[in-house]
Amino acid sequence: MSEQTFKDFIGMTLHERTKKPRSTGLTMVIDTGYSRGFVENVLEMYGHIIDVAKLTELHLTVPVKVLRRKIEAYKAHNIRVQPGGIILEIANAQ
């Protein structure tokens, strides 16, 4: 038996989302350097609706093994990970 959601509790209906992997109606988040613990907590609650995570340039300063564990957390929730953020977007455009 599945747990009751807040939506079930208040008797409200929202538009239904298609199952992952989605090709339309994508939800993207920008990770500006959050800790892996924070990301894992967010994914526990919202991983089912997030499709893409953009990692900003601050991640260029993170040890590779730490970054790999964070990326693995995103991928465990079927979330695509890519570089992003203003600086990287400008560099890509140039």
Structure description:
This protein is α/β, with parallel strands linked by helices and 94 residues long. It is 39% helix and 13% strand. Strands 1-2-3 form a 3-stranded parallel sheet, with helices on one face. The protein starts with 5 loop residues before the first helix and ends with a helix.
Query: Structural class, from secondary structure content?
Result: alpha/beta
List unreliable stretches of 5+ residues. Answer: none
The largest β sheet comes out as: 3 strands, parallel
Please estimate the helix content: 25-40%
- Beta-strand content estimate: 5-15%
What is the string of helix and strand elements? HEHEHEH
Kindly state the number of beta strands: 3
Mean pLDDT: 89
Q: What Rg do the Cα atoms give?
A: 16 Å
Shape call: globular
Biggest sheet, spatial arrangement of strands: 1-2-3
Distance between the termini: 52 Å
Number of helices: 4
